[in-house]
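re: that chain from earlier
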Amino acid sequence: MGVLDITAIQGFIKMCNDGWLQGWHERNGGNLTYRIRPEEVTELKPFFTYEKPWVNMGVRAQNMTGEYFIATGSGKFLRNVILEPQNNICIVEINEAGDSYRIVWGLEQGGKPTSEFPSHFMNHSVRAAATNGEYRVIYHAHTPSLIALTYILPLDARSFTRALWQSATECPVVFPGGVGVVPWMVPGGAEIALATSELMKKYDAAVWAHHGLFVSGPDFDITFGLMHTIEKAADIYVRILSCGQGIRQTITDENLKAIAREFGVTLNPEFID
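^ sequence. v structure.
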C-alpha cells in the first residue's frame, strides 16, 4: 500500500476534483485542508519525513498542537491534484507551541501549503472547539453566484441567510444556523484569519465579500454538500433577480418554521421575523 491508497488521501483528492468540475477553482483559486484522525496518522506515518524546517504562521492555536493536516499547495491548481497529488498537496505537522508547521509529505517539486493556511488553521481550531473535535474539514472556493450577491446584498449575516433560506427549501435544513459574512479583506494573512474565525464560532459557513465562500464540516461529503447547497441557492436567487419581475412570492417565515419542525432543526432566531 502506498500513501495514495489511504482513504483519507483519496477522499481529499476526490473533493478537490469535485470542486474543479463545478467550476469553482479557476487557475490556482480555492483551497482545502483536512485535520487527520489519529488512526489515519498512524497509517500515514511510514511515509513521513521530518527534514524540512518549521514555518511560523503568524497565528497560534493551543488546541491544534501536534495535529497533522492535509492541505492543497500555494499557487497549485486544484485541477492538477487528481493528476499529480504528490506535487500539488502536502501533509503538515503542527509544532508543540501551536504556531508553526512543517511539511512531512508531498509538494515533491517544492512549495508550501496554501497561502490561506493561517485562515484554515484558526478556523480548524475554532470549529474543533465548538464541535468537541468533530469538525475536520475547511474548504474555500470561488463560488460565482454567491460572489455576485456580495455586490448587491447588504454585507451582513441576516441579509445573506434569509436570501439563501428563501431560495431553496433544503437550505434551512442544511445550515439552520445561517451564514456569516466577512467584509472584503486582503486574503492570506492573519487579519482575515482572525475575522473569519470569530464568525466560525457561530456559523458553519462564512461568505468572503467579493471573493468566495469558506465552509467547515465533519467530513468531505458534508462539507462539500454545504458549499454546493449554498452556491446553488445563490444561483437560484441570481436567476430570480435576472428575470426582472421582482419577487412575487417566497418561502415565508411561517414556512421556514414549519420546515424546522418537520426536520427537527433549530433555526437561528436572529434571522426569523
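The mean pLDDT is 96.
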